[in-house]
Design a protein that fits this description.
five-stranded antiparallel sheet; rod-shaped; Jelly Rolls
């Protein structure tokens, strides 16, 4: 093959066209080839000492390296790599890829964004594959406008935190039931009821047969004859059950609701407007006041009211009061003859001590320091008004008496 070769060692051969002329290779009628002489790489570079280069490696499977100098770049304004296919490569191995634009997805720094208007970003694994995210913060912890489903056999664990809903959405879904306020509602569990296993779990149980329609059966009782169920017109009072041991009227009752007042010792029923005492008619006990217990009293050496006893009551207009005493009496001094002490109740509708309202007569003997039990006499005060106040008057009758274990109970009687 013809060649142009330098005659001296290490001498260059320069092809220098004149002016704007070019070095042209080939005949113009066929492809032209520029190749190395022998099994050597072919290197194309400028004459500058700091230059980039294109190097074609000699031999089978040799690489073609395009190497810019310094911060230079390989700029290719238009490129088609294998018909658009780029396989078996690694991006950013030696130097990080700073930004990537793939269709409508932009990857830049720590952000992945969609560039089309209102475009979604879908992460869709194939088949049974999963999207695994080791740590996630969604909108500062808020998940809105979507349903959160816990898969079969999986657990929603909030034991380390708090599950919070808005006031208007106080609701939790448990085994097909919705718990809303103080109600348990079945969700997709028609014809079942919530049953407990007696331990620590519950489930929806099937109801045998068909329940009658609820339409038009407000405040009626569901009864059964052993085979069929039906609605009956039993008094609603039977099902609007009582509150037990309340010290005051319960709030927001419905008509027919009852409760026992532990302060008044009276059973009340709500008539739709107010609470009224339940009674057995005229002469029945509607309220118990007391018992009121007092400390032991010093020796009584003269007639007069017992110090410390003055009891005010609140009574329903038209009702009566019965006073029942309990007392132990000692005669501590006096002549060796039979003497007695008397106690009178006054106030309310009762007269003065001399009116004869004796409720306890205590008979003494001629033994000093003896204990005598009272002969109880209950006093009836008819229609004493709504705010009677009672006092106790003692009559010692010549002896010195000591009263202990003194208590009084007032029974309010339907008038």
């Amino acid at each position: 093959m013809p060649k142009i070769a330098a005659g001296a060692t290490n001498k260059n051969i320069s092809l220098a066209p004149h002016g704007t002329g070019k070095v042209v290779v080939g005949t113009g009628a066929a492809d032209a080839t520029v190749q190395s002489d022998g099994n050597h790489n072919l290197i194309l570079q400028t004459g500058n000492s700091t230059t980039g280069k294109i190097e074609i490696a000699d031999g089978a499977n040799g690489n073609i390296d395009i190497t810019p100098n310094g911060t230079g770049e390989v700029d290719i304004p238009k490129v088609d790599i294998d018909g658009g296919t780029v396989d078996g490569i690694s991006l950013g191995t030696n130097s990080a890829v700073t930004e990537a634009q793939i269709d409508n997805i932009n990857i830049d720094g720590n952000e992945i964004t969609s560039t089309d208007t209102n475009g979604n970003i879908d992460l869709t694994p194939n088949g049974t594959g999963e999207v695994n995210i080791s740590k996630v913060d969604i909108d500062g912890g808020a998940i809105d406008g979507t349903n959160v489903t816990v898969g079969s056999g999986k657990t929603l664990d909030v034991s380390a935190g708090t599950l919070t809903t808005s006031t208007a959405q106080k609701q939790a879904i448990v085994d097909g039931a919705a718990i809303e306020g103080d109600e348990i509602l079945a969700t997709g569990e028609s014809g079942t009821f919530l049953g407990a296993d007696g331990d620590d779990s519950s489930s929806w149980k099937s109801i045998t047969g068909t329940l009658p329609s609820q339409s038009g059966n407000v405040d009626r009782l569901l009864t059964t004859d052993g085979s069929d169920a039906s609605w009956t017109n039993a008094p609603i009072n039977l099902v609007k059950l009582a509150f037990a041991g309340q010290s005051s009227d319960p709030a927001t009752p419905s008509a027919g609701t009852t409760y026992y007042n532990s302060t008044d010792n009276v059973q009340y029923v709500y008539n739709g407007t107010s609470w009224v005492a339940t009674t057995g008619g005229t002469g029945s006990i509607v309220k118990v006041h007391g018992p009121y217990t007092y400390a032991d009293l010093a020796s009584i050496t003269s007639d007069g009211y017992l110090s410390g006893f003055e009891q005010a009551l609140t009574v329903v207009s038209g009702n009566d009061i019965i006073c029942v005493p309990s007392v132990v009496v000692h005669r501590t001094a006096g002549p060796s003859v039979a003497y007695y002490a008397q106690l009178y109740v006054t106030g309310g509708g009762l007269g003065a001590t001399t009116s004869g309202h004796l409720f306890t007569g205590l008979v003494g003997y001629n033994l000093d320091d003896s204990v005598y039990q009272p002969q109880s006499k209950h006093v009836l005060d008819t229609n004493p008004g709504t705010s009677p106040t009672y006092k106790i008057y003692a009559y010692y009758n010549g002896a010195t008496w000591h009263f202990s274990h003194l208590s009084f109970t007032f029974f309010e009687i339907q008038g």
